[in-house]
Amino acid sequence: MNQRKLLKTATLAALLTSCAAGALQAQTAQPYQGVVGRMLADSKEWWPAPTQAPAGAPNVIWILLDDVGYGASNAFGGLVETPTLESLANNGLRYTNFHTTAICAPTRSALLTGRNSASVHVSGFSHTVLSAGFPGWDGRLPATAGTIAEILRDNGYNTFAVGKYGVTPDEEATDAGPFDHWPTGKGFDHFFGFLGSQTDQYKPDLVEDQAHVRPDGRHLSAQITDKAISYIDRQKKVAPNKPFFLYYAPGATHAPHQVDASWSDKYKGKFDAGWDAYREEVFQRQKKLGVIPANAVLPDRNPAIKPWDSLPPEEKKLYARFMEVYAGYLAYTDYEISRLVNHLKETGQLDNTLIFISVGDNGASKEGTLNGDIDRSLVTAPLPEKDNIAHNLGKIGEIGTPAAVEGNYPLGWAQAADTPFKQWKQDANAEGGTHNPLIVYWPKGIKDKGGIRPQYSHVIDVLPTTLDLIGVKPPEEIRSVKQQPVEGVSFADSIDNANAAWHHNEQYYYIFGSRAIYKDGWKAGLAYPSSFITGIAKANEAFDENAWELYNLNDDPTERIDLAKKNPEKLAELKAEFEAQAKAHNLYPLITWDDVLKGRIHAGKDKKSFAERVKDITKAGDSQ
């Protein structure tokens, strides 16, 4: 044998040895069961059995939309046409008492891990400016809280994620890594999307796997849908019987509201009657559809919002255009979901695909201020109301276009989109911040097509429910790391039983000062005054930590009647329970917006202000 052949043979042997070692390393749960003797004749080969999903296991898709209120989509009574969501709900189940955390990163960390956000270090954000050096606040998902992707990958699934991730620390979100907290470090075989909380829909800060890539100029939602389909097709071509898990999380409908005019123009004139009329109409539609309790009463308009009929014509024109663009943005997002669903149908995969759709990661966004926003960031000094209106009127033609780099609708439409609830995104104390629609669709596994499910549930329940339905148990270890207990509770028994017990009976909520505790139908909440209603949050508003409110959600699901003074014993009980939950889940210290804005957290060596650090992050993102 010549030297070249010897080298080739040696290389092949080394490669085979490496592959075998890799296979053994991946199968650490299987001890070697062969016999290793001195000679081959004295030995017995053994190969670990490949990991396989349970027989007949479905494909799984989690769809998480962004900043969509309860009353936006027509699938839950709203006036925005979302035929895909409506069809999935009509042929699946509507969960009408589902809750998120009130803001994006905590919701995403809770969803992916099945644990409360503070339990997995994301009480706030993974952004440098909004994280802190405490166990519940550092913004880094721990290895002890494995994600759904890690669990399913180790149980025979391929795992893909596209769109918004939102739980990678800013200082790690470069091409130098480290990549432990990137999606590929948390169980996803492939990722295509952006790592932060917000990005331009036409010029996104785009990442594929472990590197920044150049966007192609199309809308981000089109790009992530194409990529999701390609991931699925590539897998199915070589492993047609292997199930996949897809986490589909578009940037929509988070700001900036950007969409082709062909979508927004479909809604021209549709919102001229204004936000008050919208709320009344949607409330009646929700009652008829059965997605709100029969005893629900529509709360009064928030006092910060002007009656629509009191507005001058030019303001009505401006605000109506903001909502036309938002509606087009949501409708277009629904269309992109339809492309994914239709592809699965055309390729014969839809029947055994289990889909969870959370229509929003929190309530409708209040970050557009009272007058709407086109191009002014959170760190831009707010204009007086009159000047802000004039500024927006001068740029009305830019709403929805790539020039609307911060585009967001005004507060009146946020309240309308949150019908029938009070308050908005960030308000952990109110149902308007935390109450979102959930759709569950599985042709092969759901018999009660179009059924309504009123069981109280929370975003941490989706993971254990998914595992329950496909026959996988939460692991005690992942990659030899002992796992924290999953804190969510499965509601799988409600799939076939509309009257199944309510298993999730207690839940805390906290977002930068605003807080609440739910227990057995009662809810105590405390609002925090600092907000982004008038631009950057106010740092000097008075805060009364004793101004808790108390509601009986069984009798008053829209939180209209405060029972705090009438039932102080129940309030005291719930307040004590909140403190116990805060301690148990690493929520302490209770960091507020005031702490953020005054630079009390994560100042670092540079000692920069909140605004300066936000600008640094924005600049870094733009340079990628």
Automatic annotation (TrEMBL):
One of its GO terms (molecular function) is hydrolase activity. Residues 58-472 form the Sulfatase N-terminal domain. InterPro entries: Alkaline_phosphatase_core_sf (IPR017850), Sulfatase (IPR050738), Sulfatase_CS (IPR024607), Sulfatase_N (IPR000917). Belongs to the sulfatase family. Transmembrane segments: none annotated. Gene3D superfamilies: 3.30.1120.10, Alkaline Phosphatase, subunit A. Residues 1-23 form the signal peptide. The lineage of its organism: Bacteria, Pseudomonadati, Pseudomonadota, Alphaproteobacteria, Hyphomicrobiales. Keywords: Calcium, Hydrolase, Metal-binding, Signal. This is Arylsulfatase. CDD domains: PAS_like. The keyword Transmembrane helix does not apply. Coiled coil: none annotated.
